[in-house]
Amino acid sequence: MTGIELAEMTGEHAGQVLEIYRLGIGTGDATFETEPPTWERFIAGKLPGHLFVALDESGRVAGWIGCGRVSERPAYAGVVEHSVYVHPGAGRRGVGRILLRALIDSTEAAGIWTIQSGVFPENTPSLALHAACGFRVIGTRERVGRLHGRWRDVTLLERRSPVVT
């Protein structure tokens, strides 16, 4: 985990963040999206104060994390859904853990009690990262969507804060 610095995500990081997203899309195991959105569309769905990048020794973005509300209904005010992406060249350096820990800290400080995510079952590195950071499997949504003509399942994960009650 040496040489990785955490920073708030800004427009300065847009190109690199969207490139990492594009690389994740290209794996076929990260998202139902088939193209990265514009920066404006990408940022519009994210909560300010909970957007982070991990920067490598040269200042390049090695990964990013962000979250958005699951609902505008007041009962769900403390529930967010997140995405975390690590550049393929930065794997196995603790980048994902640094980012997820930053999100956990920022959301708990904001009174958010649940972070959730949906992960393709084939994305075993993401499932392992989430388990290591205290997420639990809630269940599997079977054949919830099609990607490139193939039905895909999604494993639902959540982390309930032990601090926010």
Largest sheet: 7 strands, mixed
Task: Round the mean pLDDT to the nearest integer and report it.
Answer: 96
Helix percent band: 25-40%
Separation, N- and C-terminal Cα atoms: 32 Å
Structural class: alpha+beta
Give the strand content.
25-35%
What is the general shape? Answer: globular
Strand order of the largest sheet: 1-2-3-4-5-7-6
What is the element string, with H for helices and E for strands? EHHEEEHEHEE
What value does the Rg take, in angstroms? 15 Å
The stretches of 5 or more residues where confidence is low (pLDDT under 50) are none
Number of DSSP helices?
4
Total number of strands: 7
Summarize the model shown.
This protein is 27% helix and 33% strand.
What would you say this structure looks like, in words?
The chain is about 25% helix and about 35% strand. It is of the alpha+beta class and about 160 residues long. The protein has a seven-stranded mixed beta sheet. It is globular. About 25% of the residues are buried.
Question: What would the keywords be for this entry?
Answer:
seven-stranded mixed beta sheet, 4 helices, 165 residues, alpha+beta
Q: What's the SSE blueprint?
A:
Layout: E1 5-8, H1 14-27, H2 39-44, E2 52-55, E3 61-69, E4 79-86, H3 95-109, E5 114-119, H4 124-132, E6 136-147, E7 150-160
